[in-house]
Structure formats: structure tokens, C-alpha cells
Design goal:
The protein is built from five helices and nine strands, in the order αβββββαβαββααβ. It has helices at about 10-20, 130-140, 165-175, 195-205, 220-225; strands at about 70-80, 85-95, 100-105, 115, 120-130, 150-160, 180, 190, 230-235. The protein is of the alpha+beta class. The N and C termini lie far apart (about 35 Å). The chain has a six-stranded antiparallel beta sheet with strand order 5-3-2-1-6-9. Strands 4-7-8 form a three-stranded antiparallel beta sheet.
Length: about 240
């Protein structure tokens, strides 16, 4: 996979497929100590169009890494999640405002397959940039006890963003189920996991310099390919 272009990565695909289907370890699967849900519980969602101010890192009221443009996108990372393969979530700016929409597919049940419409721990929220960082740093919307909060984030500015398309994609990724392994219909090795959700939402938003994420790619590997994105640590606050 090269930066900024679509290329398959057969080596990584085989590695992750074997990890997911043979030993049951792959990206976007929380550790077993996380609370398991299941059944048909609704995905947790939150909307706070007038969210309260959240203090920035290191006691500053100005949160670091905020994209300068009228649009912008962020990727949030749990490097130690999923047996250290990593876990990711997303955020994007409502163009021309200080409002951000952010979320993730958490998959707290640890299942490699959940059918469309099933419970996958998907959530999204809206608030200021500072609020987004604060809630992601605490895993405030994780459906259960989080053992690996988001501890890193990367952002990029944008002159604009397709907010409507991104919101539509959020509805898609929250309802399409979860999969790492053989597709139940085609038999093909593929995925519908946290990285696919993050990439699909930010691609719909038209985030700049967004590296293509092939199915079954490893979150911690993909994050390193985000060329020209800022890179920051994230401590709970």
C-alpha cells in the first residue's frame, strides 16, 4: 500500500486473515477483560451540539493539533488494543464551525462476525474539538469497561469536507455488522471492522491525504502511513 493510492497488500491480508481465523486475534477486537454485550442492544449514540468546554491537555484551554482549515479530520488510536494490533476511531469537522462529529465501532463482544443490524458497540457524538479530545481520551462512550483508552491521535486540515456524505456513511457503518474473516455469502476473506469504519467515514468526508485502507489491514500499520497528518499523544483528561 503506497501513500495516497489504492494498492492491495497481499502479505498483510494473509497475515491478518490467519490471525483472525486461526488464532482468533486481529485488529479491532478488544481484550477479553472488556465488558461483553451481545444481543440486539442499540448502538450508543450521543449528540451535543452545544457541548461544554473541555480543558485541553497539559492544563491548557487550547487543545493541541487542531486543524487550521475550515474543515479537518482526525484518527484516534488505541495502540495497545486488540492484542496490540491496534484499534482506531474517527472525527471530522463540520465545515466552517467549531463542531466535530466523532465515533468508532468498538466491537465489545469480541465476536469476529456480527450480522447486519446486530450489536457492534458503534457510537458517535458531536461537540467542540476540546470535548472530542476529552471524551476520546477517557473512552467516554465505550459500551462497558474500557481497558485501553485512546492514547494517540493524528489530524489533518482541509479546505472543506462533505459532511452530509460522512453522516450518511456513519449510519451505514453502524448498521452493517462486524466481520473479520470469510464472508458468509461469498466466502471471500474480508472485513467490516473498526479500521474499515474509520476509513469509510473519513473517505466519504473527503479527508486530505487519507491513505487507502484495504480490507483486513492492521490498524497500527495503517496509522503510520497517514502522510502529512499531525501526530499527538492523548492522556485522559
Amino acid at each position: 500500500m503506497n501513500i495516497g493510492e489504492r494498492r492491495s497488500r497481499l502479505g498483510w491480508t494473509v497475515a491478518v486473515a490467519l490471525a483472525g481465523t486461526v488464532i482468533g486475534v486481529t485488529g479491532c477486537r478488544p481484550t477479553p477483560t472488556a465488558a461483553s454485550g451481545g444481543g440486539t442492544r442499540p448502538a450508543a449514540t450521543a449528540a451535543a451540539a452545544n457541548g461544554e468546554h473541555v480543558q485541553g491537555m497539559a492544563g491548557s484551554a487550547v487543545a493541541p493539533g487542531r486543524p487550521a482549515g475550515p474543515g479537518g479530520a482526525c484518527v484516534f488510536v488505541k495502540p495497545d488494543g486488540a492484542q496490540k494490533f491496534g484499534h482506531v476511531g474517527w472525527g471530522f469537522r463540520v465545515t466552517g464551525t467549531d463542531r466535530w462529529v466523532y465515533g468508532a465501532v468498538e466491537n465489545p463482544t469480541n465476536e469476529l462476525y456480527t450480522p447486519p443490524g446486530g450489536y457492534i458497540g458503534a457510537w458517535h457524538a458531536q461537540g467542540s474539538y476540546a470535548r472530542m479530545l476529552g471524551e476520546m481520551s477517557r473512552d467516554a462512550h465505550y459500551p462497558g469497561k474500557s481497558t485501553h483508552p485512546y492514547s494517540r491521535y493524528r489530524c489533518v486540515s482541509s479546505p472543506a469536507g462533505d459532511v452530509d456524505a460522512a453522516r450518511k456513511m456513519i449510519r451505514t457503518v453502524e448498521s452493517r455488522g462486524f466481520l473479520v474473516g470469510p464472508d458468509r455469502t461469498t466466502g471471500d476473506l474480508t472485513s467490516r471492522d473498526c479500521l474499515d469504519a474509520t476509513y469509510d467515514v473519513l473517505h466519504a468526508y473527503r479527508a486530505r491525504h487519507l491513505t487507502y485502507a484495504p480490507h483486513l489491514d492492521i490498524p497500527n500499520v495503517w496509522v503510520e502511513t497517514l502522510w502529512d497528518w499531525s501526530d499527538h499523544s492523548l492522556a485522559p483528561h
